[in-house]
Design brief:
With 482 residues, the protein is mainly α. The chain is 69% helix and 2% strand. Strands 1-2 form a two-stranded antiparallel sheet. Helix 5 crosses helix 6, helix 5 crosses helix 7 and helix 15 packs antiparallel against helix 16.
Length: 482
């Protein structure tokens, strides 16, 4: 039971530390590589916990039906075959192993929530809020330092802890609704004011960065939730709306009126979002999407291999991933694997919505929780159509935490007769341990030997002899090309 009890806290702590760590874990390493270190440590511990669980227990809770399980297994089987035939099996198997261990991680979280529903979920949400509050303190320090300096600062300087402020937006797509959920679940308690404050300021930081993908994702999530749940989503929608309005007020006060009073221009990207959208609606995504489409048509069955858009798209010098999860999985893993993944997502959302029939009409707290899970799921899917949130290590951790919480909560709300205990044969247990150990090997084989000297590796991958204005494009490390 120790392994299961640790998983949720492990993910939250790793996600938080990777954003507030003010020093490099290795010489010359930046924020993105710090975050990759933390995710790798997290997935490694997950593999150890999972091996321990398989070694000690001969049964497990089956939290979903056989159709969903078969789609997930087929997705990873196709990915393994694709990796073997890729240009670099070493890098492809790294991505495959990372996804597999993230799946093991979210399953451990789901097991916890299925058995310790309300107390554990509340603790996880509080940990998320405390982590966000710690990050907000850092942002206050950064803000005060820039104000004291007295000159117009670059807007990018207002977001600390990320090599690109858009990576912070990827995290917000998941964490903003989680913070709003804490407001709803803590109504009437002393921590409710704290939850409102953190959530509102989190909105403020979204207005500062004007993350269009996050805005569109959250709006789409809210619309779908209102359409599906109607009056049961009323409290949830009000909470999101009021916290956003408070956050906008804080933004206007500290990032518009204060700078103007000092003779400076307003801070942040919000006032330029219309011009940026008109000038470049796709944010230079079209070339990436076109290349991914070409690769998908040229390699429809197995794709070019997990992680391999970084290789076949390097001449574009625009990104090491397509900024679209459908095109990414389709061109890297193949169309059959993409269809399996989409089927699994559809089945998962269907099961989530089915929980509504088991909730008491007066159970506002759990109706609100259902609304939050649906909003986050849709927000991830929509934001992922124009961003790389399924690629970045910190957002990957938060996505794993979200799916695990939603999955475990769904199981806890479902009648016990539908959540069965499955006996594992010795062959299945040994096979599972072998796959997990192989995943650990593939993970570290993909990181070695670059991990020994990341600055030199990333300098080499700038390919200055080929491209006049080379930039780091993160995928495994900040130097994403290989």
């Amino acid at each position: 039971m120790t392994s299961k009890v640790t998983a949720s806290y492990l993910i939250v702590i790793a996600g938080v530390l990777s954003t507030i760590l003010v020093f490099s874990v290795a010489p010359g390493v930046g924020f993105y590589d710090n975050q990759r270190f933390f995710e790798t440590l997290c997935t490694l511990l997950t593999a150890i916990f999972s091996c321990s669980y398989l070694f000690r227990f001969a049964s497990f809770l089956r939290l979903c039906n056989s159709n969903l399980i078969s789609q997930i297994l087929l997705f990873f089987l196709l990915g393994a075959v694709s990796s073997i035939f890729a240009h670099s099996p070493r890098y492809a198997l790294f991505e495959w192993a990372n996804f597999l261990l993230l799946l093991a991680m979210l399953y451990l979280v789901a097991l916890e929530l299925a058995t310790k529903n309300t107390p554990l979920l509340n603790q996880i949400l509080r940990l998320c809020a405390l982590g966000c509050a710690a990050y907000i303190l850092l942002e206050i320090i950064v803000y005060m330092a820039l104000i004291i300096k007295g000159t117009q600062p670059p807007n990018e300087s207002f977001i600390f802890g990320f090599d690109n402020y858009r990576f912070f937006n990827h995290v917000q797509t998941i964490t903003l609704p989680l913070l709003a959920l804490l407001i709803c679940r803590s109504s009437g308690s002393k921590q409710n004011i704290f939850a409102w404050a953190v959530t509102s300021i989190w909105w403020t930081l979204l207005f500062v960065t004007a993350g269009r993908g996050t805005f569109i994702g959250l709006l789409a999530g809210m619309f779908v939730t209102w359409f599906c749940l109607r009056k049961d989503a009323l409290q949830w929608c009000r909470t999101m709306l009021w916290s956003a309005l408070i956050g906008l007020g804080i933004y206007i006060l500290f990032y518009v009126l204060v700078p103007l009073s000092l003779g400076l221009q307003p801070f942040g990207f919000l006032f330029s979002v219309v011009d940026r959208t008109m000038e470049n609606p796709s944010s230079s995504r079209w070339a990436l999407w076109a290349r991914a489409w070409e690769l998908m048509l040229a390699h429809p069955w197995l794709g070019v291999g997990p992680l391999h858009f970084a290789h076949y798209g390097r001449d574009l010098q625009l990104g090491a991933h397509p900024h679209n999860w459908i095109l990414q999985i389709g061109c890297e893993w193949g169309i059959p694997a993409l269809l399996c993944l989409m089927a699994a997502i559809g089945l998962g959302l269907k099961r989530l919505l089915a929980v509504r029939q088991y909730l008491d009409t007066k159970d506002v707290k759990n109706h609100t929780t259902l609304a939050a899970w649906l909003t986050i799921g849709v927000a991830i899917l929509v934001d992922g159509l124009v961003s790389g949130l399924i690629v970045m290590p910190t957002s990957q951790l938060w996505i794993a935490l979200y799916i695990g919480c939603a999955w475990g909560w769904t199981a806890s709300m479902t009648p016990a007769a539908q959540v069965t205990t499955v006996r594992l044969s010795m062959t299945m247990r040994v096979g599972g341990i072998v796959i997990l150990l192989a995943s650990i090997y593939f993970l570290f084989n993909g990181l070695w030997p670059e991990i020994l000297n990341l600055p030199a590796y990333e300098e080499q991958n700038l390919q200055k002899e080929l491209y006049p204005h080379p930039l780091l494009r993160p995928r495994i490390w900040a130097g994403g090309y290989f």
